[in-house]
Amino acid sequence: MTVTVVPVPPVAAPPIGPGASLSASLEVVEHISRNQVLDVYDAWSRERDCRCVVKLLRPDSRGVDRRERRLRYEGELLMRLRHPHLVSAYELVDEPQTMIVLETLTGLTLDALLEDLPRRLPLHDVLGLGVQLCSAVGYLHRQGVLHLDVKPGNIVCPETGQIKLIDLSLARPPGRVRAGLGTRGYRPPEQEEGGVVSPAADVWAIGAVLFEAAAGRPYSESPGDLRSVRRVPAAFAHALAACLDPEPLARPDIAGLADALDDLLPTDLQRRSRRFCA
């Protein structure tokens, strides 16, 4: 008789508690979150004398080369990027393990904000959000990188009114990607199916985020004309419809989308201000 042995996946050790050391200069304040690969901690930096956010591999993911490479790539990328609407990295730590030390952001994520509101934002806030996302994502594109996971959970809305786009764990240059990379509902058909992705993929994601913020429901649950669920200017509905075109070449570029959204903002909120949720 042949016996098939099914390997049992390793059980991850629980997150470490407050007061434990992540490194010689980083002490855990609180565990923030855990996904299938990463742990994120609120930590105290003795070197900087302030709180920060630390991103590192879960214990059961350490030693997996591709995961180590992805985390290091994200850290190196964040260390060379500087933009007011992108989360900032302070340091890429090597010992005792690879860790990215990030700025602490205050405020709600957009998905949490939409939960607290009647599920949709005032139109001028949606437009301001879009202009700021175009600013951040356009900067990434000029650095030769796609974000590929623009979604409400990756957008922090501080009280300052200046949004921050976070989590570059999926960021990479344009090219072919595996099917299903990213988050369902915020990835375009070519990313869903595992095709070649270009800057147009992030344009689709921005369109899906703005549709949700304006309509009060995810685009995946309510595809179609935005004007069927909310009274908005025709130019705005047309801009979102273009972003969400299944054909990448039919979508606007980031600069064109930013111009279209900016033209719809009140004069005192146009590009010179770019405030959101102020």
Structural topology:
Blueprint: E1 26-34, E2 38-45, E3 50-57, H1 65-80, E4 89-93, E5 99-102, E6 108-109, H2 110-116, H3 123-142, E7 155-157, E8 164-165, E9 175-176, H4 189-193, E10 196-197, H5 199-215, H6 234-243, H7 254-264
Antiparallel strand pairs: 1-2, 2-3, 3-5, 4-5, 6-7, 7-8, 9-10
Helix pairs in contact: 3-5, 3-7, 5-6, 6-7
Key descriptive features of the protein:
single chain; 278 residues; alpha+beta; Phosphorylase Kinase, domain 1; Transferase(Phosphotransferase), domain 1; five-stranded antiparallel β-sheet; three-stranded antiparallel β-sheet; globular
What does this structure look like?
The chain has 278 residues and is of the alpha+beta class. The chain folds into 2 domains: 77 residues, 2-Layer Sandwich (Phosphorylase Kinase, domain 1); 162 residues, Transferase(Phosphotransferase) domain 1 (Transferase(Phosphotransferase), domain 1), CATH 1.10.510. Helices cover 31% and strands 16% of the residues. It contains 7 helices and 10 strands. The strands form 3 sheets. It has a 5-stranded antiparallel beta sheet with strand order 1-2-3-5-4, with helices on one face. A 3-stranded antiparallel beta sheet has the order 6-7-8. The longest helix is centred in the middle third of the chain and has 20 residues. The N and C termini lie far apart (70 Å). The relative contact order is 0.11.
